[in-house]
Amino acid sequence: MSVDQLTKKYKDFTLDHISFQIPRGMIVGMIGENGAGKTTTLMSVFEMISPDSGQIRLFGKNWRENRKENLQKVGLVMDGLNQNPRLYCKDLENIYKRVYKNWDSRLFYQYLERFSLPLNKKIKSFSKGMLVKLNFALALSYHPELLILDEATSGLDPVMRDEILELLQEFVMDEDHSVLISSHITSDLDKIADYILFLHQGKLQFFRSMEEIENNYGVLHCRKDFLQVLSPEDYEAYMPEDFSCKVLIRNKQALLSRFQDLVMERATLEDFMLFSTKGVLPCQD
Prior knowledge:
The two termini are 40 Å apart. It contains ten helices and 14 strands. The strands form three sheets. A six-stranded mixed beta sheet has the order 6-7-8-3-9-10, sandwiched between helices. By secondary structure, the chain is an alpha/beta fold. It is elongated. A hairpin with a 2-residue loop joins strand 9 (195-200) and strand 10. The longest helix has 14 residues, at 158-171. One of its GO terms (molecular function) is ATP binding. This is ABC transporter ATP-binding protein. InterPro entries: AAA+_ATPase (IPR003593), ABC_transporter-like_ATP-bd (IPR003439), ABC_transporter-like_CS (IPR017871), ABC_Transporter_VariousFunc (IPR051782), P-loop_NTPase (IPR027417). Keywords: ATP-binding, Nucleotide-binding, Transport.
């Protein structure tokens, strides 16, 4: 999927010319503070809202012009109950197989067994974790090529989240499959994402590979006067503390070659969010 210059304006918020691509066989994590534009981006992709401008292409075809065909190839998993609560799993199977031409009943029941989901209980009796598993079983059983998750793992316990993350990694082992996952649980994305899409106040901060983030970025704890030694090109931002400061370094290998005694921590996705919202930018004078 490719998104080019996607824009949506509201009275108090603008999703501002967002562009990115989701490579085949990859997991792309979307991060950002509440209100950054993550859900607006996903809703625009699915035309749950109409963007003001921009183009979305799926598998090389214009999304809007081929919407019916494209929806057969995309699985959407959202948080919570998205079905009639009075239905049973069997009822959902009967509905989905009429909608999706590639619906696979055998695969659906395999997922129900794998997830220990009961056939004889209405879904209104399901726990939050069971509903998430049901949503995954439904989305995966019509053999989508792209899986999109919007906070689908929020509120789950760590064991269940790991089970879902393992499922996503299995999904992209077929290199024709891709995943776009929006989540505020950045530690999950640290584990499985190949690329990160970072939104802040409706703007795209960066779209980078995790390999680039791992190799180039780090967090330095240092005295405040050490900032005077650094050039603006050395770091993204810093956060003052009582007697020291934390610095998000953008080229850690170059800095370590100049100052061999520095101790630098790995930069997590949470670090990027914190430095973007609370950090002080370097002076460019």
